[in-house]
Amino acid sequence: MTRSNCPPSPAPPPPLQAKEPCLRYHLTLTMGWPIATGVIEGSCRLLVKDRLDTTGARGSLPGTEAVLLLRAVIDNGNVERYWRSFTELDHLHTHAVRYQGQPAPAA
After folding, report:
1. Quick one: 82 exposed, middle or buried, by C-beta within 10 A (0-12, 13-18, 19+)?
2. Which of 4, 9, 78, 97 has the most other CB atoms within 10 Å of its CB?
3. pLDDT (tens digit, 9 = 90+) per residue, 53-65?
4. What is the rounded CA–CA span in Å between residue 60 and residue 39?
């Protein structure tokens, strides 16, 4: 098939048409910037594949999501920041909100 006898390409779906001014991949690649979908999909693919290739791995969707989140945090080097945020939110949820305006009960 040659270019002259190829059918025209279909129009992009409406969500992509709306974002077309922002989709300047040729400029992004020229600048050497990563295209986020490739970076994200590549990272996710490696995390999921590694998790699923573990012999005997079982789990639910929420459990698998939690494991993948923690692995991504570790791989990105954000463990300290994540843990600090997690403990602050956990304290707020389990103590500060529950005993708001009252002293926490003694053990």
Report:
1. middle
2. 78
3. 776 666 677 887 8
4. 26
